Amino acid sequence: MGRILAGNISIMIADYLVKIPDTEPTLNNLVKRSVIGINENGLNHYREDKLEDADWQLLDKIALDANLDIKKITTFTRADYEEFERAFNESALKPDWGLVGWFSTEKVDAEKNRRATQLGNLEALKKAVANGTVEILDPNGKPTDALNYDSQMKRSIAEAYIASLEIDAVLNENGTALIPAPRQAAQKDKEPTKLEKMQQAIAAVIASKKFDPMAIPYGGVKAIKTDCEEKYPAVFDALSSFDYAWGKSRHLFKVANYESYAKGGKD
Prior knowledge:
Elements: E1 3-5, H1 8-17, E2 27-38, E3 44-50, H2 53-65, H3 78-90, E4 98-103, H4 106-130, E5 136-137, E6 143-144, E7 152-154, H5 155-164, E8 169-171, E9 178-180, H6 182-186, H7 194-208, H8 220-231, H9 241-247, H10 258-262
Antiparallel strand pairs: 1-7, 2-3, 2-4, 5-6, 8-9
């Protein structure tokens, strides 16, 4: 395929860089909820409390009666939890409080990260088109600077643009997705490069702070740098290590107001 839809490039980049877990969310917290009054609108007012040892013993008895293993509760999917909650509510042992379960958010977080990555890369592509570093075509094959849903790009230009972002990937045969570059596929067990190790460390710190990687808040870069240098001294082993890695990773991480930051705004 000699041309591809230009707008799909940001989607393909996000799909390639951000993997979505295919596992179901599992229960990671369970609390008890008690009615402590009625508000002015006639609705119940609740209080949530940590389950104590006696509460867990009661839940264990209820679970056993329903042929469920409370010890596996941290692996409960939503369906498992609904089955347990139904047994709890129907049990003769049910106390005067209810249950509230909270589930892992890895999949939701990954989906948000992928969307943010896609939007960030779309904006970057628009700027590249606007400043003339990337050429796109209208449906008739004529050069244009308007990135629309039907704008096209020559395959060779698309792959050169992707390479300029230091993403080690190429377009698949149909031009519908990114796949590992041949040398990466041949060396998939090779030790990550120094830059890749630094990028992995930065991503881990950003995730621990629950930042949007494509919209780091004011003051966030300095906090990320401090954590990286404290937690990964073997990787960030020079004064310039973090700044070098950050500068090479604009397709992965970006401050919320990048234009201001790039012009010298302090973070």
